[in-house]
Amino acid sequence: TQLLEQSPQFLSIQEGENLTVYCNSSSVFSSLQWYRQEPGEGPVLLVTVVTGGEVKKLKRLTFQFGDARKDSSLHITAAQPGDTGLYLCAGAKAGGTSYGKLTFGQGTILTVHP
Amino acid sequence: EAQVTQNPRYLITVTGKKLTVTCSQNMNHEYMSWYRQDPGLGLRQIYYSMNVEVTDKGDVPEGYKVSRKEKRNFPLILESPSPNQTSLYFCASSWGGGLGYTFGSGTRLTVV
Question: Of B81 and A98, which is predicted with more confidence?
Fold first, then answer.
C-alpha cells in the first residue's frame, strides 16, 4: 500500500491569512487529486494534476505537483470562512489494472475564523 | 444532473444479516469504486471496477463483495456484516481512474 502523508492535520487561521497544505509520498503517482469535503457529504474534486512540476490555479487556490510526481501542495491565498472544510489529497497509481486504485491522505481540517 | 446515487443514506442492521448498498451513476463513466471513511483512518478503498465484469480489490476488501453487471451500477454487498464494518461508505465514478472521481453523498452504516 502506498502511503500519502498529508500535513498539517489541523489548521485554524484567521480570515485573510495564507496557508499551505502538503501531501508527500515515497511513491510515484500518475496523478494527484485534491478534494474538499463538507460534513455529511461526499468529497468534491477540486483539481487533478498529472505532469511533474505542473501548477494549476483555481481562484485563490494554487495546486502544485512535484517534479518527481511524489508530492503535491495546496496553497490558499487570503482564506475566507467559506474555505472551511476537510481537504484531501489522493494519488492514482500508473497503468495496468492498478489504474483505478486510489490512495488518500489522512486529510487536513481547515477552520477559517471571521 | 450528473450524479452518483447511493441508497440508503442511513442503515442500521444486526450482525450477520446480509445487506446490499446500491450505487448508480448517470455519466457513462468507466470506473467505479467504493470507499469507507473512519475517524483517524481517512478514506480507504474497498473495491474498484474498470469496466463491466472487471473488478479488483482495494486496500480493505475483506468482508465485502461487489459486482459490475451493468456500466451504471456497482452494488456493495456485505454477506455477513460485523460491528467493525460500521462506517461511512462512499461510492464514486470516473472517466478514468487517474482523472478524478465524482462521489455519492454517502451511506452511514451501523452494525449492532
Answer: B81
Is B84 in a helix, a strand, or coil? helix
Cell of A14: 484567521
**Chain A CB within 8 Å of residue B20 CB:** no
Q: Could you tell me the three cell numbers for B51?
A: 469496466
Where does the pLDDT of residue A19 fall: very low under 50, low under 70, confident under 90, or very high at 90 and above?
Answer: very high
Distance CA B22, CA B44 (A): 18
The nearest CA of chain A is from the CA of B59 a distance in Å of 7
pLDDT digits (tens, 9 = 90+) for B93-104: 998 877 889 999
Closest CA to A5 of A27, A37, A38: A27
How far apart CA A110 and CA A101 sit, in angstroms, is 26
Between strands B54-57 and A108-113, the pairing is unpaired
Condensed to tens digits (0 to 9), the pLDDT of residues B19-68 reads 999 999 999 999 999 999 999 888 999 999 999 999 999 999 999 999 99
CB nearest A30 (choices: B35, B59, B98): B98
Rg value, chain A, Cα: 14
Query: Which residues of chain A does B45 touch, with a Cβ-Cβ cutoff of 8 Å?
Result: 101-104
Q: Which of A2, A4, A102 to mutate to test the interface with B (most CBs of B within 10 A)?
A: A102
